[in-house]
Design goal:
The protein is of the alpha/beta class and 368 residues long. It contains eleven helices and 17 strands. The strands form six sheets. The protein has a seven-stranded parallel sheet with strand order 3-2-1-4-5-9-14, sandwiched between helices.
Length: 368
């Protein structure tokens, strides 16, 4: 008599914007998990094939080229048939697709608005179709410019102050609208354990929550607000401070600081952010929740540290901030510490050493 073994279905995870800076690192880390298939979705508007080339060798990793402002039918992609999506569905969606650097969203302002509206709607509809958990990756930009107190740490409860018609409005207001979209979908649709999708009104929701343990309602749509992040695979010359300073230092060029001397900022290494994203997805927290490093530095201190690590002879000079750049906020991460037991563990010095080493090595392979 032949023995019968039950087929093990792997968890299907979709990462939108997976060829971007954060997305590619996330795909890489998720591949370390057992029994998972990773679907990387990107349209290469700002993402790079180079970021995911090394992942294509894995049989449980597939790339699909798609613009999320168009409806998504994963079952039409032939290379995804092996993941049996029609039968097994999608279990998790990490949504990162969006131009994210000042130069990118300044050059693609309309696309940025559409990604944060139509794109988010399409991703939410996809999550509802498959009853998948969704982590929507928002940004510290929703808080607007930091107040006159440069050391202010933003809490999740703060409403923010954003100019709806300013040069950064496509991104800042886009991210605010995308959070509103997620929050309203979350209010209207609720997934109950072992049940089909339920369309639910606030009145019915109140009735259900009176009868059921609130913890038994799955928080399917989560929001995370990511603060300044740095590390390998960041693009150069796109308006981000650290890669631009590193490039200038390695080339022994003058290091441009586009801030006043007294202004402070913070940066979190990519590995810590990725750990936080996965922790949020695995938790019962719906957010919004801040991820970032609360330790503050002046840009001059960061530039001096880069000079020291790289052995550069560059000199620091100050330049007026362009209109499309605003002061960078600093996160309060008390919620992340309490609810996720998450906090950054990689120091700025160690993170910069790793980043500079990799950027130096990659410079041999391709010109800056």
């Amino acid at each position: 008599m032949f023995s019968q073994t039950k087929e093990i279905f792997k968890k299907n995870i979709l990462v939108t914007g997976g060829a971007g800076f954060i997305g590619s690192h996330l795909c890489e880390e998720l591949l370390r998990l057992e029994n998972v298939n990773i679907i990387c979705l990107d349209n290469f508007l700002t993402g790079l094939e180079l970021n995911i080339d090394h992942l294509l060798q894995f049989p449980n990793f597939e790339f699909i080229k798609h613009d999320i402002i168009e409806p998504i039918n994963l079952e039409l992609f032939l290379n995804l048939k092996k993941f049996k999506i029609k039968l097994g569905g999608i279990q998790e969606i990490y949504h990162l697709a969006c131009p994210a650097s000042p130069k990118e969203y300044h050059n693609h302002s309309i696309e940025t608005l559409l990604v944060n509206s139509l794109g988010v709607k399409n991703i939410l509809d996809l999550a509802i179709k498959y009853k998948a958990k969704l982590l929507h990756c928002s940004d510290a930009a929703i808080y607007g410019s930091s107040p006159s107190d440069f050391t202010h740490h933003f809490k999740e409860e703060e409403k923010g102050h954003v100019n709806p018609v300013g040069l950064q409005s496509c991104y800042n207001e886009g991210k605010r609208f995308s959070e509103a979209m997620v929050a309203n979908y979350r209010r209207k649709f609720c997934f109950m354990p072992n049940e089909e999708k339920i369309k639910i009104s606030p009145e019915i929701f109140e009735q259900i929550t009176q009868k059921e343990n609130l913890q038994e309602i799955i928080p399917w749509a989560k929001i995370v607000r990511i603060f300044n992040t740095y590390g390998p695979r960041m693009k150069l010359d796109d308006g981000r401070i650290i890669p631009d300073l590193i490039k200038q230092a390695i080339s022994n060029e003058p290091m441009m600081i586009i801030q006043r001397k007294e202004e402070v900022t913070s940066f979190c290494y990519i590995e810590d952010i990725i750990t936080g994203l996965i922790k949020i997805m695995d938790s019962k927290i719906e957010g919004p929740i801040n991820l970032g490093d609360p330790n503050i530095w002046t840009i001059e201190e960061i530039a001096e540290l880069i000079i020291k690590i790289s052995g550069s002879s560059s000199k620091i000079i100050y330049k007026e901030r362009p209109d499309y750049m605003s002061r960078i906020g600093i996160p309060n991460i008390d919620k992340a510490k309490k609810l996720l037991e998450w906090f950054p563990v990689i120091s700025l010095t160690d993170g910069l050493i790793k980043t500079i080493e990799i950027m130096r090595a990659s410079r041999i392979l391709k010109p800056f």
